[in-house]
Design brief:
The protein is an alpha+beta fold and 302 residues long. It contains four helices and 15 strands. The chain has a four-stranded antiparallel β-sheet with strand order 8-10-13-12, with no helix packed on it. A four-stranded mixed β-sheet has the order 9-15-14-11. The N and C termini lie far apart (90 Å).
Length: 302
Amino acid sequence: MRVLVLLGLCLSLHTCGSFPNRVPGPDPFLDYDLLDEDLGAGGPRNRTGCGPCDPDLCPETRGCRAGLVPDSCGCCQECGNLEGQACDPGPRSVHYGLCGTGMRCRADPRPAGGPGPDPGLEEEDEQVCVCLDQDPVCGSDGTTYLNRCQFREAAFSDPDLRTRGKGPCKTVPVIKVPPQNQVNATGSSLVFLCEVFAFPMALVEWRKEGRDVILPGDDPHISVQSRGGPLKFEVSSWLQIEGAGPEDSGTYRCTARNNLGSVSASAVLGILGAEELSSYLANSVAEMKQLMDGSDYDQDLY
């Protein structure tokens, strides 16, 4: 009898040794997020909280100016990202979301002349939504939309908006950035800026009031430069004065014209000596302090 009991016990121990003594847990060496991405939108999504797809449970989407795109689970729809917003380059929303109608997720170009990345670090360029159709559109509201995506976004808010055709709207010049008033010291260098939008393109001129001369004229310490941009159908013009003196004080006018009309904007320049400038700055600081100490700033606006 003892022999049979010992034989049965040995068989039991041998059988139990063939099974694991615990339920396997998550593999610490397996990247589940990477595995989930490799499986694609149709793969298991338990770690991201996606269960069985039931379209009837999807939330209602409103105000999607760039149209609808699949959500991260590939079941419901959500608002697509607008032009210039960060995005996910793949076919599935992971972190930032997918681009809306007519756009593609592309690398955001670095600003010209900006600092480059640290050579010791590998940085990925940010992906942003870029409109595929970059042709300008003239709207029935007389506004020029620089691409089809901008027009589509405006049409979402104005259902009656239509296109007059491809290309910009013909219009008299519009000064987008007018010159600003300045006060500076004798001997300083300063710049006035004037940005103009127009189609056909505008010609920009500078004059000083009281003088019937288009600047710079024959004055060696005044120069004028113009170039296209920063946006399509825009012209940026600069008036620069080197070593300004009291005689340069006055009103400077930027005038833009094309064959449809003209528009102008002006700014005042004050050139002061050292004592006058110090007094002017002190008065400006006192006025600003008095304004900030006023009763309007003590009111609770929230």
